[in-house]
Amino acid sequence: DDYIEVPDNNTLHLLNQATFSFDLNVDDYTLQDGVYAHILSKGATDGVLWSDYAIMIHDGNLLVQMKSNGTNIPSNYIFDINFEIGTMYHVDIIYLESTLSLYVDGNFVSSVYNVINETNASSEPLFIGQRFVENSNGSYSGILDNIAIWDRALDPGSDLLDNPLDHSDDLIGFWDLEL
Question: What's the predicted TM-score (pTM) here?
């Protein structure tokens, strides 16, 4: 399985707001030794540290994991989506203080309230398509493309989500790829 490793830097420390945008087409929901398929993961290590933040596929649903600043205790937030295997979707996740909101193909799905209000800021890298490098548990199986991360909460109707490179203020990274 292919993945990208992005070395840690201060822009990856999202704290209390962010926007994640990506296209996905899931091939498989199978757990790998009890680990969900990771779309992205920042801060995890082999059995020692949980992710500062991660986005995973959980039985066709989307699971966002976030760890409060200064702790190693993650909170998991599940969005009931039922992604169909073999179907392409565009996903936007908007995190603002204590709310996570999910949009799929431009349509509002739901929000989760009272989430942690500040994510942890470890020195571990960001992985796209994988949990961390030490083993392949948590590898994503399917297509990932047009992955963008901003360090602020964008308006869900923003043209930034469609054209991230045209509006790069607060854009942490953009990966135009197919993993």
Answer: 0.91
